[in-house]
Amino acid sequence: MNAALVEWLGLLAGCLTTLSFLPQVWLVWRKKSAGDISLGMYLLMCSGVALWLSYGVLIHSRPVVLANGLTLLLSMAVLLMKLVFDARRQPQADRPGG
After folding, report:
1. How far is the C-alpha of 69 from the C-alpha of 40, rounded, in Å?
2. Which CATH number do you get for residue 79?
3. Which of 10, 27, 28, 74 could form a disulfide with 63 if both were Cys (CB 3.0 to 4.6 A apart)?
4. What are the residues whose beta carbons fall under 8 Å from the beta carbon of 13, sequence distance 6 or more?
């Protein structure tokens, strides 16, 4: 198979899977709530994507690096918003030292 076609196939697949995170990022940001999002899932997701990104760098694969670099940013954004918004929702009495 043509190497350029394979490269474009990888880029297209990476774009679609990366873009799949945008609706979640937008929804969490707009609602300022991430209560229904699994912290464990996003911790595992960010870890796995970071490893894929490292793998892509090591094998010099542009589609793997680009897709996973952007996916890591988006999934980390959701993770960060989850931590921030959940902390804001926690009643003052339940907070450490409160």
Report:
1. 20
2. 1.20.1280.290
3. 10
4. 63, 67
